[in-house]
Amino acid sequence: MAAKAFLRKSHAPRIISPLTFAELSSVLSRVEESLELPSVLRTEPPQRRIRALAEYVVRDSRLTIASQVGSTRLRLGGRSVSVPMEYTTAAALAPKLKLRSLDLLHLAYASLISQLEFSISSFVTGDETILGKSDEIQKSLNITATHPKDAVRT
Fold this sequence. Notes:
By secondary structure, the protein is α/β, with parallel strands linked by helices. It has helices spanning 2-9, 18-31, 39-42, 46-60, 85-97, 101-116, 128-131, 134-141, 148-151; strands at residues 14-16, 63-65, 71-76, 79-84, 122-124, 144-146.
């Protein structure tokens, strides 16, 4: 599997967002019953067990979680509301990239984190829809969408 090879071989920094952490927790909660867990972990309450599994994956895969903190005021529907920057960035990207909302949020996080904390030049994904928009993503965000098998080479 290309993702496993990327995580095993690549020495590039691996930045994930809180959205990735939430998705990881979601996946782990759905596959947990098929995992062979140590007995000490099986006795923990479900929320704590999933959190421990997510922590293990993050550490074992040498991932770094990064989050930008910030919001912007947006006037919408006659109201002025505070909206997290990743949502306004995703909304601004929507007409250009025409991707699903979670894909837009992942890319918005990458863009904002790159501007504020880490320099992100590649967005590694196996998602063919995102990879199919790699030219538009490069033009819009100056980030290269890369398949894990191609990222291993770098």
